[in-house]
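# step 3/5: fold
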Amino acid sequence: MTEQQPPSGATYEAAGVSIDAGDKAVELMKVWIDKARRPEMLGGIGGFAGLFDASALKSFDRPILATSADGVGTKVAIAQAMDIHHTIGFDLVGMLVDDLVVCGAEPLFLTDYIATGRVVPERVAAIVQGIAEACVQAGCALVGGETAEHPGLLGPDEYDVAGSTTGVVEAADLLGPGRVEAGDVVIAMASSGLHSNGYSLVRHVLLSTAGWSLERHVDELGRTLGEELLEPTTIYAKACLDLARSTATHAMSHITGGGLAANLERVLPDSKVATLDRGTWTPAPIFDLVRQVGSVEQAALERTLNCGVGMVAITAAADADRARSVLAGHGVDSWVCGEIGEATGAVGAPAGGTVTLRGQHPGW
């Protein structure tokens, strides 16, 4: 009689999780993480927590910590479809640190989270490469993160990325609505394209409805659609910090989901209104392309996409030229697009804390 052998034991790898692949991914990403350091960062990756020496905060009279958490939305679907993963990290870092600097806070450190259906070490390392390189641009340290393998929850080639960041600002230097004055000007900073918002609309219009492929060369864009859609988010952090320190800038707004008006309203006091002139800039061709191909009404477009403005500063009019010079020194194109006025409360007058867009973009 033949004795029946017991079934071999189940393993984590048989369930779809590869510890070896995770270890290899860590080894591949180390070279990039080492580039994204600050002097305050203690140790390296591999511990249970990232360590950052906070003794530098002793030099502050009243240090205010600022924190932000975010992801990159459905833009990851474009990266996955094109199998290009080293730029998506710029979008993540841009979404995080540029939310911090609007209050004048300097980004100190960042942690990331990558969830994927299957760990492909080279792909994970490429994502981290982009995050690390973007941290260098922003001046913050990448102190740690997590890569999680979720078979059955995500497809083998699917992933999502998120992160959080912490910064600090002296209480006396905190920017915000309380500083905004009538007569201030609104300085717009050019976006590099769509950044990382509104991709559900863009994908619906250009990929699903129009049926365009990512490989399609689009004359208006001067490159393929995929190349345009993967254009990394501009990181304004160092430019905006310089602006806050060297000019009479009273508030800033990061133009993300919701568009220019809705985000600018977030930093206006109830007693003030902003009037912006569309005629002061021409949005990049991708915005007009989405508008025309999808027959998207301009109001809906402006509530969804940044329409060419990635960040704005509210600055004393006397400092407008100096502010633009500071931004130019960081390679950021800027222009005065509007001004701040008093909310009068008169019948038919704009309500406080509101933004009015007037005129039309040249060529629209």
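# step 4/5: annotate
The mean pLDDT is 89.
# step 5/5: archive (pending)
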